[in-house]
Amino acid sequence: MIIQLNQDIIDSLSKTELEVIRYINDNEDNLPTLSIVDIAFNTFSSPSTVSRAIRKCGIAGFNELRYKSSAKHKDTDIQAAREIMEKSLIEAQNDIERISIQNILDSIYIIKNSKRVFVLGRGLSEYVAEEFAFKLQLLDVNAVCIKDPNIMRKVGSEIKSDECLFAFSLNGKTTELIETLESGNRNGCKIINCCCNENSQLSKYATVNLIGYKHEHQAISKYEVSSRVSLSIIARIIIDYLAIY
């Protein structure tokens, strides 16, 4: 049994929770391929019930349970999938841990009080910038997404002190972004830098730095196409806050 039961644990479980644990133990071999939704469906319960039952048995959560199960599985495909999912989990967890709540609130204050927000992005970060700018527009923020390097430089040289530059960059080494933020800084505008490199040149020009986590693993090593999950998480936090409050 992957989940060991004793009388104290059994007494702490409701009837439904006990059925969930029995189902997990009976299907230990298939556990690496199951999701928490699958288990809930097959036990006529809910994902929250499954999660609660697992925690009552001394396991931190479903991810830990599935990790324990897949770690000893002989199927190499399952092992590989487990490692990839674990990488994404680590990236998301580290990103949340690194984010300063005060910096998030300072960024939101700047956005709310800026006459116009220019959202900047290059390469794959453009997709994060586009989505972020679009959602700001839906929230009645005067936001514009800028991807063209020449337009970026022009915006930076002409931006006003009551406007804002919001830059998305994984490594913070893109020349046109550095030049644009440097110009904006000289013009006295507010600058928010969302980056995964705390030592980038962008940070020294920013009013607020939102530093995310970059996993060292790169799936396609031939090209610079590292995950932008961290940038997306930070963008989502800001949008969700603006939408609710």
UniProtKB/TrEMBL annotation:
It comes from the Bacteria. Residues 107-235 form the SIS domain. One of its GO terms (molecular function) is DNA binding. Keywords: DNA-binding, Transcription, Transcription regulation. Pfam families: HTH_6 (PF01418), SIS (PF01380). Signal peptide: none annotated. Residues 1-76 form the HTH rpiR-type domain. This is DNA-binding MurR/RpiR family transcriptional regulator. The lineage of its organism: Bacteria, Bacillati, Bacillota, Erysipelotrichia, Erysipelotrichales.
